[in-house]
Write a structure and sequence with these properties.
Low-confidence stretches: 295-310
CATH topology of the largest domain: D-Maltodextrin-Binding Protein, domain 2
Keywords: DNA-binding, Transcription, Transcription regulation
GO molecular function: DNA binding; DNA-binding transcription factor activity
CATH class of the largest domain: Alpha Beta
Largest sheet: 9 strands, mixed
Structural class: alpha/beta
Protein name: LysR family transcriptional regulator
Family: Belongs to the LysR transcriptional regulatory family.
InterPro entries: LysR_HTH_N, WH-like_DNA-bd_sf, WH_DNA-bd_sf
Strand content: 15-25%
Order of helices and strands: HHHEEHEHEHEEEHEHEHEEHHH
Length: about 300
C-alpha cells in the first residue's frame, strides 16, 4: 500500500466531506479514492469515515488520525519540492578561460537537455585548481599531463604568414639563420603555462640553440595573439585558436605537445556525468578531437587529486 497516496485521499475526502469532491480535488477517480481509504482502514484496523448515512463524516478514530495524515502529506510534498530544487541546483564548473563563449553556451544547453544544470566559471589553470581545492566549485576541467588526460588538444605554432613546410623545426628559428626570422619568439599563453608543456618546450629550445628570450610566457592570450598578428612572433596554440584569430597553424616536429584535460570533482556522479554524458560537448569547447571517453576504472585521476594543476 502507498501510505502517502492513501493519506492524500483521506485528507482530500475529509476536507470536502464527499468522496466525489475529494477524489476530484486529489485528481483521482472516486473508485481509486475509495480503495485507498479502505486499504488505509484495513492497515490500521479501524474506520476513518462513518458511512451509515449519505453524508461522509469522520469517526472519532478518523479525527485523531487526520492531523498526522496531513503532516505526512505536507512532508511528502515538501520532499518532492526539495528534490526538484536539488535537481535544478547548478553544478558550478571551473572551465578554461580560452573556451569560446559560444561553445560554452552550447555546453550549458546540452547539459540542461540532460537535466545537468551547469554554471561555468572561466579561469586559468592554476586558478581552476585552486577553485576545486577550496570547493568554490563542484567540479573543474583541470590541466593534466597527456598520459592521464580524458581530452587531448594538439598544439602547434601560429603565425600571420603561411609556413613553408608542413611541420616546424625549432632549429629553423635560431637567430641569424635568416634575417626575416631573426629572434622570432614563441609566445606561450597562460593556459599552457604549466610544467608539462612549458618545460619540454623550453628545454627543446635550449637544446637547438634558441636564445632564452625566444621562448616566453605572454601576459594573456590576447597579448600573445596580437603580437603574432603584428610581428613575426609565433603563438603556441591549438588549431581552433589559430583559426579564431585568422592565423596560419603548423604542428611542431619536436617536442610533440598536447594539452591534457580531465575532470576534478568532489562527487563521483558529477565526475562521471561530465566525463561521459557531456564528453563530446566538452571536447568541442576545448578544441579536442571528438573521440570516446577513456575508461574510468579504479580511482580516476581527477577524482583522487581534485584541482591538481599537474
Amino acid at each position: 500500500m502507498d501510505v502517502v497516496a492513501a493519506c492524500r485521499a483521506f485528507v482530500a475526502v475529509s476536507g470536502h466531506g464527499s468522496f466525489t469532491s475529494g477524489a476530484a480535488a486529489a485528481g483521482i477517480p472516486q473508485s481509486v479514492a475509495s480503495r485507498r481509504i479502505a486499504a488505509l482502514e484495513d492497515h490500521f484496523g479501524a474506520r476513518l469515515f462513518d458511512r451509515s448515512s449519505r453524508a461522509v463524516r469522520l469517526t472519532s478514530f478518523g479525527r485523531e488520525m487526520l492531523p498526522t495524515a496531513r503532516r505526512l502529506v505536507d512532508l511528502a510534498d515538501a520532499m518532492a519540492d526539495d528534490a526538484e530544487r536539488a535537481r535544478m541546483r547548478p553544478l558550478r564548473v571551473a572551465v578554461p578561460e580560452i573556451c569560446p563563449p559560444n561553445r560554452l553556451a552550447a555546453l550549458v544547453t546540452a547539459g540542461r537537455r540532460q537535466r545537468i544544470h551547469l554554471q561555468v566559471r572561466p579561469a586559468g589553470p592554476q586558478e581552476r585548481a585552486r577553485l576545486c581545492q577550496t570547493l568554490e566549485v563542484g567540479a573543474g576541467i583541470v590541466a593534466v599531463p597527456e598520459a592521464t588526460a580524458s581530452w587531448r588538444v594538439p598544439l602547434g605554432l601560429a603565425a600571420r604568414t603561411p609556413f613553408p613546410a608542413p611541420t616546424v623545426f625549432l632549429e629553423t628559428l635560431r637567430s641569424g639563420r635568416a634575417r626575416t626570422q631573426a629572434r622570432r619568439r614563441i609566445l606561450i599563453q597562460p593556459e599552457d603555462d604549466v610544467a608539462h608543456l612549458r618545460d619540454p618546450l623550453t628545454r627543446a629550445g635550449q637544446s637547438v640553440g634558441l636564445a632564452p628570450a625566444q621562448v616566453t610566457v605572454a601576459p594573456s592570450l590576447v597579448d600573445a595573439a596580437a603580437a603574432a598578428l603584428d610581428s613575426p612572433d609565433l603563438l603556441l596554440c591549438s588549431r581552433q585558436q589559430a583559426e579564431d584569430f585568422a592565423l596560419h597553424w603548423c604542428p611542431l616536429t619536436e617536442p610533440r605537445l598536447l594539452r591534457g584535460y580531465d575532470i576534478a570533482a568532489g562527487v563521483r556522479e558529477d565526475l562521471e556525468q561530465l566525463r561521459t554524458v557531456l564528453y563530446a560537448d566538452i571536447a568541442r569547447c576545448l578544441g579536442a578531437p571528438d573521440g570516446h571517453p577513456r575508461s574510468t576504472g579504479g580511482s580516476p585521476p581527477g577524482h583522487r587529486s581534485a584541482g591538481n594543476p599537474a
